[in-house]
Specification:
By secondary structure, the protein is mostly helical. The chain is built from 13 helices and no strands. Helix 1 packs parallel to helix 12, helix 3 packs parallel to helix 11 and helix 11 packs across helix 12. The radius of gyration is 20 Å and the shape is globular. The mean pLDDT is 85.
Length: 333
């Protein structure tokens, strides 16, 4: 892979068209993140209700579709309380650090051939770099809240994230080695519209490892040990109220969309489809993966912490390493 060609576009040194696209893209992404969280919370409650044989949201609006909006209004109206003994600066900085990097991670994602906010040839690297800030926010939240459950949740989040980032990175690198690019557009264009032309068909082991690690990186069940309501109350965000909790909530759902978007672009052909290619194919694949995440959450029980670490260090990491080495040998041949 020729690293001398890696460049990051400087929005302040490029044409006004690029700067306008970046600003419009950020505004559109802010609207998308808010609307997406509203829809996903409703869908997740309905999926949970279906799996557990109960109706889910039913009272507020037709079929309960206004329940999420009522919850958002309630969150915004709640008083912001700083716990006694907490480090106030870090306590309120943590949810902001967790939420803002999400916008940067959305920038290089190719929703369509011409539907994107920022085009750069190291998009994969950009997303992986800013994804690491998420665990920093969880660490700050748990440590600064002066709560033992928060501190234990933060310790779990750090060890879980550090462990599962490695096989996730190795799985993505296997595809990048095979295609010779870190550009999400190039990785998408290298695939075809049919499933047997996708990278998931050529790299099935990497795809499975990526998806399992994505569940762990987004703290979704059965890997939601940093929150673990039955053990730690709510883990790292036990002491948060109002929009402090709301920002963590928005960041979690936005991170789910980012991880599924990367999976759709790298492994599932992105915006390409059997009929007319376009953003609708991309969104269809992303929301299909999100539904699988929800199904896993409400179907499988939470694993123990030793089981979580054993799965990563004894199985996923060796398998991802062998898969990357095999890919490198095949590419070299």
């Amino acid at each position: 892979m020729d690293t001398s060609s890696w460049t990051m576009p400087d929005p302040f040194a490029t044409t006004p068209d690029t700067l306008i696209r970046l600003v419009v893209g950020l505004v559109a992404l802010a609207a998308f993140v808010g609307a997406n969280a509203t829809v996903l919370v409703y869908v997740e409650r309905k999926v949970a209700g279906f799996i557990q044989r109960r109706p889910g949201p039913f009272e507020v609006g037709p079929q309960g579709i206004l329940q999420t909006i009522a919850d958002a209004v309630k969150l915004m109206g709640k008083q912001l309380v700083t716990p006694r003994g907490a480090d106030a600066l870090l306590f309120w900085l943590a949810p902001i650090v967790g939420f803002l990097p999400v916008f940067v991670m959305f920038l290089p994602i190719p929703f369509g051939e011409s539907t994107y906010a920022l085009k750069c040839n190291v998009g994969v690297l950009l997303i992986l770099a800013f994804a690491g800030l998420g665990v920093l926010s969880l660490c700050l939240a748990g440590w600064s809240s002066a709560n033992k459950w928060g501190l234990i949740g933060a310790a779990r989040a750090v060890s879980q994230s550090v462990g599962y980032e490695i096989p996730l990175l190795l799985a993505v690198l296997a595809v990048c080695f095979m295609r010779g690019s870190l550009d999400l557009f190039e990785l998408t264009r290298a695939q075809g519209p049919w499933p047997w032309q996708w990278n998931a068909a050529l790299q099935p082991v990497a795809f499975v490892i990526y998806f399992i690690c994505a569940l762990a990186e987004t703290n979704r069940a059965p890997f939601d040990l940093p929150e673990a309501e039955s053990e730690l109350t709510a883990g790292f965000h036990t002491e948060y109220s109002g929009m402090g909790f709301g920002l963590f909530f928005l960041a979690e759902y936005a991170n789910m969309v980012v991880t599924c978007s990367v999976a759709a672009a790298i492994f599932l052909g992105g915006y390409q489809g059997p009929a007319v290619p376009g953003p609708w194919w991309f969104l269809l694949k992303v929301y299909a993966l999100l539904l699988i995440m929800m199904w896993a959450r409400w179907t499988y029980p939470r694993v123990r912490f030793d089981q979580l670490l054993n799965l990563n260090w004894k199985w996923l990491l060796p398998l991802a390493t062998l898969n990357l080495l095999a890919t490198a040998v095949i590419v070299k041949l």
